[in-house]
Structure to design on (667 residues):
């Protein structure tokens, strides 16, 4: 049985290109296309696809809100964010909203197909271009302590050091010490990279991030 | 009332003055007439009674009268005593020679005129222009005449003098009042009027009023000086704003031309290359290897165009601003951290800027962007801390570096004119969204900038 895909993008050319690209793959079935967030939501509810390929910027309802709506509805639909922007905060926002992956529009057809297959199976996909910025070559990160993981998860949810400290009943300084250690172990330079790398290496799961 | 002040003042001073003058004049006229009547009756009675005594006492001794000196007559004692009020009596013969007289009555001989009416008092004047009331009476059949006179000068002098002084004083008071009104007009009302005219016709920020008015009182002079200073300040402000506007236009034009240059040198070249490669691929359909190469190069040019346009977009107005202030600041910090090679720590309390309007997000974002660049470029900072938090009713964006610091100028707006736009821009952006910018810096110790907007 093929992977059923809905495509939501407000640019007709891009939409047509995506359809043409995905139709070449034998295991994909395009069950619907939408040109704005509202139409996309209607089709997703109607067809319950395996994967919703969602543009981050759309009229009506933007991609991040749509993804959050899909997640909140509990439908068994994996959202894959598709965008022109390489800003990592989009990735953060998408993942926090419940997207399973993030891919740039400039990605190759092979990468796009791979991404769809990955999220359809319940995995996480982060665009190679962003991953490249993030990680460099693959490494096996040193294991994080439980406290470090807790600090990383809370920080990734968007809490400040002070708030994280309050949550865990530790000092702000301790939070920062833990974070510095996390960065070091994952090879990250900042919070965003730490979160993306933790997801990439499976140190942290998407469920932990959005629960 | 305001406009007729002068008329009212003049009227208020003139009305009592004139009425006092008029009533005093009428009084004096009446008084003079009464005195005249009294004087006439008096001299008439005096002349008549003296004439009857002359007639009875020594009317038949005419020969003796003429033979003896007047002092030896029986009436001598009467004449020697004089009269009670300033006046004189004399007995004249028909030729006008003095037969008998009271002391000092020589004056009567001079007043005597043959055509004087008999038995009726008249007013007359002597050569010195002094007024007298004179009456002539015949002493029966003796052929003698009695002449009696009173001097106005001596009788009424003091009364007349004081009576006349009164209206003069009142007149002087009125005059002084008018002089006062004139002075008030000259030194207060007229300068105020001219000041008012200047103020109302002044083109603010362009004209200067007269700095001084010599005729005006000190207070109005001071007012005028203050006004002059205000107008001067307005002109300075206008000049500043004009240069300001020119500067804004210049910056805008600079940005446009730099954008055009970037578009021309970047994406335009890429797209041109894409067209070339597409054409080459189209004509190379028989030669498989060359075609693939053209298509690879076409994609490469397209990827390059996308990267360049993306970075242009980020530079112009980052699309990720829609992710909210905290996300935008994090993204900015990570990018600048790489670009400038400094450490930037962002701490944003969760949900702190969630309901912030788009305008405020952009304004705060630009402030952070400018401040981070300044810290690295001018302050040589290695580490900058960015904090976003609530403080009472404000949302505060705080940027603190440990760079070289600087002396904070009192007026950031003036910096723009001097070509240092950064701080001035930050302050303006905050002001535009109802916020304020606080800059604290000490040379050698770093800088702390706080951008504060009312929490929504």
């Amino acid at each position: 049985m093929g992977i059923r895909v809905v495509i939501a993008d407000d640019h007709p050319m891009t939409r047509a290109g995506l359809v043409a690209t995905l139709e070449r793959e034998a295991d994909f079935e395009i069950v619907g296309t939408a040109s704005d967030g509202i139409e996309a939501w209607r089709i997703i509810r109607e067809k319950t696809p395996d994967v919703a390929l969602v543009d981050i910027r759309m009229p009506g309802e933007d991609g991040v809100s749509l993804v959050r709506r899909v997640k909140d509805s509990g439908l068994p639909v994996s959202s894959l964010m598709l965008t022109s922007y390489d800003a990592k905060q989009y990735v953060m926002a998408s993942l926090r909203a419940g997207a399973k992956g993030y891919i740039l529009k400039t990605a190759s057809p092979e990468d796009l197909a791979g991404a769809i297959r990955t999220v359809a199976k319940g995995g996480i996909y982060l665009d190679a271009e962003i991953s490249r910025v993030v990680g460099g070559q693959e490494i096996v990160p040193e294991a994080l302590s439980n406290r470090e993981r807790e600090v990383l998860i809370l920080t990734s949810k968007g809490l400040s050091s002070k708030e994280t400290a309050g949550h865990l009943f530790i000092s702000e300084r301790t939070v920062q010490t833990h974070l510095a250690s996390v960065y070091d172990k994952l090879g990250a330079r900042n919070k965003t990279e730490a979160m993306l790398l933790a997801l990439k290496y499976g140190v942290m799961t998407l469920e932990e991030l959005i629960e | 009332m305001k406009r007729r002040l002068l008329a009212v003042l003049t009227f208020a001073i003139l009305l009592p003055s004139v009425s006092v003058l008029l009533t005093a004049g009428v009084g004096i006229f009446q008084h003079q007439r009464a005195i005249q009547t009294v004087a006439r009756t008096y001299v008439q009675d005096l002349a008549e009674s003296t004439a009857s005594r002359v007639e009875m006492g020594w009317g038949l001794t005419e020969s003796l009268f003429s033979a003896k000196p007047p002092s030896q007559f029986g009436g001598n004692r009467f004449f020697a005593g004089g009269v009670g009020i300033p006046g004189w009596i004399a007995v004249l013969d028909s030729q006008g020679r003095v037969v008998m007289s009271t002391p000092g009555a020589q004056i009567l001989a001079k007043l005597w005129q043959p055509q004087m009416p008999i038995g009726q008092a008249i007013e007359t004047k002597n050569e010195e222009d002094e007024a007298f009331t004179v009456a002539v009476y015949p002493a029966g059949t003796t052929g003698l005449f009695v002449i009696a006179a009173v001097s106005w000068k001596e009788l009424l002098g003091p009364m007349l003098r004081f009576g006349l002084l009164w209206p003069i004083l009142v007149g002087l008071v009125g005059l002084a009042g008018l002089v006062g009104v004139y002075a008030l007009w000259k030194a207060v009302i007229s300068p105020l009027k001219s000041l008012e005219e200047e103020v109302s016709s002044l083109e603010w920020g362009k004209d200067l009023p007269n700095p001084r008015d010599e005729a005006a009182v000190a207070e109005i002079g001071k007012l005028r000086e203050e006004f002059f200073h205000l107008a001067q300040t307005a002109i300075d402000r206008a000049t500043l704003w004009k240069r300001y506007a020119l500067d804004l236009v210049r910056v805008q034009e600079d940005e446009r031309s730099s954008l055009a240059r970037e578009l021309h040198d970047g994406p335009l070249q890429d797209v041109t290359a894409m067209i070339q490669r597409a054409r080459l691929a189209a004509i190379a359909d028989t030669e498989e290897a060359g075609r693939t190469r053209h298509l690879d190069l076409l994609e490469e040019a397209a990827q390059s165009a996308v990267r360049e346009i993306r970075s242009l977009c980020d530079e112009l107005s980052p699309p990720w601003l829609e992710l909210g202030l905290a996300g935008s600041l994090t993204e900015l910090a990570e990018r600048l951290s790489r670009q400038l090679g400094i450490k930037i720590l962002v701490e944003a309390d969760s949900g702190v800027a969630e309901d912030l309007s788009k305008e405020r997000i952009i304004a705060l974002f630009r402030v952070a962007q400018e401040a981070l660049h300044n810290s690295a470029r001018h302050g040589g900072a290695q580490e900058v801390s960015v904090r976003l938090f609530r403080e009472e009713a404000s949302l505060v964006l705080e940027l603190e570096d440990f760079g070289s610091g600087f002396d904070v100028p009192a007026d950031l707006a003036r910096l723009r004119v001097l070509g240092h736009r950064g701080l001035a821009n930050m302050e303006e952006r905050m002001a535009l969204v109802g916020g304020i910018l606080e800059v604290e810096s000490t040379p050698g110790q770093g800088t702390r900038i706080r951008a504060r907007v009312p929490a929504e």
User: Anything to note?
Assistant: Chain A touches chain B through 25 residues (CB under 8 Å). The mean pLDDT of chain A is 89. The CA atoms of residues 78 and 158 of chain A lie 23 Å apart. The longest helix of chain A spans residues 172-186.
